[in-house]
Amino acid sequence: MSMFLAAALTAATVADIEIKAARLDYARPANTFGYSAIVANNGPESAQGVEVVVLLPPGATLRNAEPCVGAGSLVRCAIGTLAPGEERRVFMLVLTREMKPRVTAFAVSETADTNASNNTREATTP
Question: For the segment 17-33, what is each residue's pLDDT rounded down to a tens digit?
Answer without folding.
Answer: 999 988 888 766 568 88
